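Quick one:
INPUT:
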């Protein structure tokens, strides 16, 4: 018999966390799943750790890794009724996290569901504030959240109707959620499905992430008007919010780091959005420039260079 769920987990140089991720998966109350590991060239102990757990394996050449394309490849081979997107650095904080997520599909009109994310203990305070706003402990998620793949599930039948997109390198979760809702599908947030996931990006890594988010949004929200003055206003509002929180907490050094971070975020987003808009208007299908903005700064590439986790 086919499993209820096919868990699709992408890996590259995640030995620092993978054992915790897979241990939390193994301890879930819901065990009716198959696990697919999709690795794109790990050089640390990632594959050694993965071999301790039963799984199907897909190897991707590092130069061929493209999120939407890779997920489509894995989904086409999966046998489960539900496709569960579980990041390799996402650790379940409840033994019933997967069960709670899957329970959402008891409602026949639900086509996708996603979990609540809590930041890691070492997360910077601005990360904790952003996560608290995006993933509340109860009720609905923030209006800017449409779907989030650190832990989410999609009906396989819905995926066959709407594949993961490949217009840009990133935001494949956001695009799927937005497009699903536009065609009348129901996507739900499940705060009871609690997991731990966050990143303390450097300025360089933040640039890459925000650039690709801007490029992707140019395809996801083609009607949006972008101006540098609006981006500057958004950076200023975020900085003022950071300043208030830092002052109340007595963390003034955090503010010094936060000012350049917020403005770099908006600058990178604007550059990416303009690049994406040019691609969309011209029909340019080449997403390699945006991909390079992320990959040359990516954590897995840094760990490979530094020999971390060897």
């Amino acid at each position: 018999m086919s499993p209820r769920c096919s868990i699709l987990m992408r890996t590259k140089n995640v030995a620092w966390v993978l054992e915790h991720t897979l241990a939390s998966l193994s301890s879930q109350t819901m065990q009716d799943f198959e696990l697919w590991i999709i690795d794109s060239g790990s050089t640390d102990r990632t594959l050694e750790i993965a071999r301790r757990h039963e799984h199907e394996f897909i190897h991707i050449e590092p130069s061929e890794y493209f999120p939407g394309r890779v997920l489509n490849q894995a989904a086409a081979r999966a046998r489960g009724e539900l496709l569960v997107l579980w990041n390799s650095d996402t650790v379940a904080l409840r033994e019933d996290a997967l069960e709670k997520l899957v329970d959402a599909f008891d409602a026949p009109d639900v086509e996708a569901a996603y979990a609540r994310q809590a930041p890691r203990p070492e997360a910077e305070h601005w990360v904790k504030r952003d996560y608290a706003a995006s993933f509340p402990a109860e009720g609905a998620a923030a209006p800017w959240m449409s779907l989030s793949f650190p832990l989410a599930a999609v009906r396989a039948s819905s995926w066959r109707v709407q594949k993961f997109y490949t217009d840009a390198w990133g935001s494949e979760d956001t695009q799927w959620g937005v497009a699903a809702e536009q065609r009348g599908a129901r996507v739900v947030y499940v705060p009871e499905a609690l997991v731990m996931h966050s990143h303390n990006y450097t300025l360089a890594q933040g640039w890459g992430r925000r650039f690709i988010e801007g490029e992707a949004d140019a395809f996801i929200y083609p009607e949006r008007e972008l101006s540098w003055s609006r981006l500057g206003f958004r950076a200023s509002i975020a900085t003022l919010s950071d300043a208030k929180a830092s002052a109340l907490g007595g963390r003034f050094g955090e503010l010094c780091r936060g000012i350049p971070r917020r403005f770099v975020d908006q600058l990178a987003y604007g550059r990416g959005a303009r690049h994406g808009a040019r691609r969309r208007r011209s029909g340019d299908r080449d997403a390699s420039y945006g991909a390079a903005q992320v990959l040359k700064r990516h954590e897995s590439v840094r760990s490979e260079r530094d020999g971390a986790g060897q």
